[in-house]
Write a structure and sequence with these properties.
- By secondary structure, the protein is an alpha+beta fold.
- It is about 50% helix and about 15% strand.
- The chain has 4 helices and 3 strands, in the order αβααββα.
- It has helices at about 5-15, 25-40, 45-60, 90-95, and strands spanning about 20-25, 60-65, 75-80.
- A hairpin with an 8-residue loop joins strand 2 and strand 3.
- The protein is globular.
Length: about 100
């Protein structure tokens, strides 16, 4: 499991929930969840932040920047690029 795969897996589970917003700290917190789940750190909190930024610029995920809550940036998940021909709920709602 890579950091990118871990982030994408968590966002895909968010895609199927009624609330599709999250904070940058939620992405960073995946580092510690990875330690518990995989028995080792896949990357530091900053590695997760960098990979999240890369995923946005690479078009893997499309998110909307919302108003900050304190110092925390809030994001709305709009689209996840499908893998293995999987097309999620949000993917079908985006006009091309």
């Amino acid at each position: 499991m890579t950091v990118r795969e871990h982030i994408k897996r968590e966002l895909e589970s968010l895609e199927n929930s009624p609330i599709n917003t999250f904070k940058t700290s939620d992405i960073q917190g995946l580092s510690f969840e990875g330690k518990n789940e995989f028995g080792k750190f896949l990357g530091s909190t900053e590695t997760y932040t960098r990979e999240f930024r890369r995923m946005r610029t690479d078009g893997v995920i499309i998110v909307e920047k919302l108003a900050k809550k304190g110092r925390q940036q809030v994001w709305r998940l709009n689209q996840i690029t499908p893998t293995n021909s999987y097309k999620g709920r949000l993917y079908n709602n985006i006009p091309f």
